[in-house]
Amino acid sequence: MASSGLQLLGYFLAMIGLAATVAATLMVEWKKQYQGKTYRIYEGLWMSCSGNERTTCEFHQYLLKLPPEVQATRAVMLVSIFLSSVALMVSTVGMKCTRFMDGKAEFKSTVAMIGGIMFLIAGLLTITMTSWYVKMIVQKSYEYHSLTSAEFGNAVFVSWAGGFFTMAGGAFLSCRRCSGSQTGSTSSNHLLPTTYPKSNYV
């Protein structure tokens, strides 16, 4: 099995990814629009802000009136956060440095692998949904020719980073069995009785 150091590295990477995903979900700058030189409009998954030097923000009142990319991105990001939170608890139980299930090393290792796979799925959901959101923003900017220019904001980059960190942490946690077969075969060889050739000397 992989060392406790690799598991800790994956665990902390996944925690950073989860924190970045939560921050990106709450950020306002998912989409930026400029009207003229000074007036700016920021649209997030939960609220929108507009103004010149001082901006005023308001929450989205009606969910069904939001654009499809906002509704879908909000839902998938919440699923990703929930999945990462569950994976965080599962990985804590399965890590070698914790005291849970000390007498069941094989089962403990399997639990850590399950947590890593859940992190991988959560990170993949975040990256895929964020990329689709960016695609929709770029596509709409080409379709609608208006005086306002729309582009994706800083929350997109934070979300991408969160997804990559989450997947990296999940990869470290889920590949802890890379050398498991070697350790198992080595230990079994030590348990086998050693036979020596018979000697003809008396």
From TrEMBL:
Its main location: other. One of its GO terms (molecular function) is structural molecule activity. GO terms for cellular component: bicellular tight junction; plasma membrane. The chain crosses the membrane at residues 6-28, 75-93, 113-134, 155-173. Pfam families: PMP22_Claudin. The keyword Hydrolase does not apply. It is a multi-pass membrane protein. It is found in: Cell junction, Tight junction; Cell membrane. Keywords: Cell junction, Cell membrane, Membrane, Tight junction, Transmembrane, Transmembrane helix. Belongs to the claudin family. This is Claudin. It comes from Perca flavescens.
